[in-house]
Amino acid sequence: MDLRRLEVFVAVARERNFTHAAHDLHLSQSAVSQQIAALEGEIGAQVFDRSRRRVALTPAGAALLEWAYRLLADSQAARRAVAAAQGRVTGALRIAASLTVASYLLPGPLVGLTRAYPEVRIFMRVQNTREVSAALHEGHADVGLIEGELDHDGLVLQVLREDELVVIAHAGHRFADDDEIEFQELVAEPFITREPGSGTRQVAEAELRRAGFAPEQLRTIAELSGIEPIKAAVEAGLGVAIVSALSIRRELQQQTLIARPIRGASMRRHLSAAFAAGQPPLPAARELVRLLGEYGPRSLDRFGQSSATTM
Q: CA-CA 20 to 30 A from 30: which of 17, 69, 193, 219?
């Protein structure tokens, strides 16, 4: 049975939508349809009911899905075993990375990896920490790059470096006169937050509670998906936010934002690589993690300044 057809089948089954599956697979919708038609011809049964608004599995499709997961998992295990035995840094590398890591830490190491090993092909999804964990558990990623904590069951974590979360405000904000911010001062400000499932949001809320503060008291006026929209909104004066110090080095240098810690709340966290337990990491994944550990600042102070640089 053709494994590529099974991969397409699983993607459509997961998304219940041909267009979304095509986007995930970097294929055209017609190519996805052709692969599904070829699979149905191969097994002699229809796998999807297309008569409804949302694609649904037929009984035959539901039966096939369980076996498809097993066959693809076995294929991945075989690929890993051969690559690990040969020690060759080559082939496809599927990365699931949180937004902070993907945008502000990963580009340099990716350049280093592909220049040193031109046979490596990168496939990356930018997802929040919760989605990265799911991608690893479901076998859709070879390595995950996350911020903060996640469910460790079935995963192995390797800490890459330390990051700090800080409160940001526009350059003319009253917080510019303070070295630290009292939590009650933060509560008085309109607050912009990340979406649920964001590692930044999870860490911020957890650390505030650990310090004895109630994040529910924050006067949230907007929930935005992504760091760049939040920074732009803060620069425009919409409100204040809590973001990674790693993400604002340029704005601090350009003096369009200020960054301050919250008095009494330690907002430090780890940025980590994650692998599915029980499977040897691909050599390309190991090399990428090594480069991530060497690239840029090992840690950042509370105002986003590098403590050391390499590479």
A: 69
